[in-house]
Write a structure and sequence with these properties.
By secondary structure, the chain is of the alpha+beta class. It has 4 helices and 6 strands. The chain has 2 domains: 33 residues; 95 residues, GMP Synthetase, Chain A, domain 3 (2-Layer Sandwich). The N and C termini lie far apart (37 Å).
Length: 142
C-alpha cells in the first residue's frame, strides 16, 4: 500500500528580502515564510518548525498506537520538538531533533510509558526519515 500526501511552496524575490508561502495538504492551509522567520524571530514559519510539527505529530500517533497495542486505554499525549539547524563546512544541516513528550490520564506506569515512547522514537516513519540527525527523547507521565 502506498499513500501519497502533498505540500507545495512558492518563493518570490532574493533570499535576504524575499518571502514565500508553504501550502499544506488538501485543506490548503497557507503559511508565510522568509529568511527572517528562519534565522531570526520574524513573522511566519520556516521549514524547521514544520519538520518539528511533523515529527511531533507522527511520534504522538505512533506512541498512542503502541499503548493501544499493549492493551491499555490511551489518555492524552502531548509532544513538542526542538529542531536544530546547524551550519557546517558543507552547508546547513538539521543536526538534532529533541522530542519532549508527556502522557496525561494514562493507566500505565511511567516506566512503561518511557519504554513505549523510546520504541515510538525508533519506529515512527518521520524518525526513520530524519535518521541522519541525532534524535533525543524526554518522556514522562505528567
Amino acid at each position: 500500500m502506498k499513500i501519497l500526501r502533498f505540500a507545495s511552496a512558492t518563493w518570490k524575490g532574493p533570499v535576504p528580502t524575499g518571502s514565500g508561502v508553504m501550502k499544506l495538504g488538501r485543506g490548503g492551509l497557507e503559511i508565510p515564510y522568509s529568511l527572517k522567520s528562519r534565522v531570526e524571530d520574524g513573522y511566519g514559519t520556516n521549514p524547521e518548525e514544520l519538520i518539528g510539527a511533523a515529527h511531533a505529530g507522527c511520534f504522538s500517533m505512533s506512541l498512542t498506537n503502541l499503548i493501544e497495542e499493549s492493551g491499555k486505554p490511551v489518555g492524552e499525549i502531548t509532544t513538542s520538538a526542538r529542531v536544530t539547524l546547524e551550519e557546517r563546512s558543507d552547508g546547513f544541516w538539521i543536526s538534532e531533533v529533541h522530542l519532549i513528550t508527556r502522557g496525561m490520564n494514562q493507566v500505565i506506569t511511567n516506566e512503561e510509558f518511557v519504554a513505549l515512547a523510546t520504541r515510538a522514537k525508533e519506529t515512527c516513519p518521520v524518525s526513520k526519515l530524519y535518521s541522519s540527525a541525532t534524535i533525543t527523547l524526554d518522556a514522562a507521565l505528567a
